[in-house]
Design a protein that fits this description.
The protein is of the alpha+beta class and 138 residues long. It has five helices and five strands, in the order E-H-E-H-E-H-H-E-E-H. It has a five-stranded mixed β-sheet with strand order 4-2-1-3-5, covered by helices on one side. The radius of gyration is 15 Å and the shape is globular. The two termini are 18 Å apart.
């Protein structure tokens, strides 16, 4: 499962990239989605890598994300995070009764650098420390 977080805002984004982000339901800054890893997704991530941060999400981080930020499709319904965690690999979030995106806080401690100015710097593109970033944004 790949977690994708929109880092760059909505100003001065070209039309095709804005359309791709909208289709992924990453319409606002600091919103996140969970998607299965496919070849089509890899091609799309290559296109939008200068606007998002993405990487493989661990089960522990996924459990924290579901408990803290998952919202039901219908108001007033309760969320069973443990049940959803077991079924998330088989079904999309909308079939499990959750909104297909997560609204996150800006990262506590800030973002050191958005751009890849050197090896291992920046959060844009493929991020090996995506789990740490998500935990700081909960």
């Amino acid at each position: 499962m790949i977690a994708i977080i929109r880092i760059v805002g909505e100003v001065n984004v070209s039309g095709d990239i804005a359309d791709a982000l909208s289709r992924l339901r990453l319409r606002k800054k600091y919103s996140a989605v969970l998607l299965p890893e496919t070849t089509e997704l890899k091609k799309l991530l290559k296109k939008i890598r200068n606007h998002v941060s993405y990487g493989e999400i661990k089960t522990e981080t996924l459990a924290k994300l579901l408990a803290a930020r998952a919202r039901p499709l219908e108001k007033g319904k309760k969320i069973d995070a443990k049940k959803i965690l077991t079924e998330i690999e088989k079904k999309p979030l909308s079939e499990l009764g959750l909104k297909p995106f997560f609204r996150l806080h800006p990262p506590r401690g800030g973002i050191d650098s958005k751009k890849h100015s050197g090896v291992g710097k920046g959060v844009l593109g493929e991020n090996k420390k995506i789990n740490e970033l998500i935990e700081r944004m909960l």
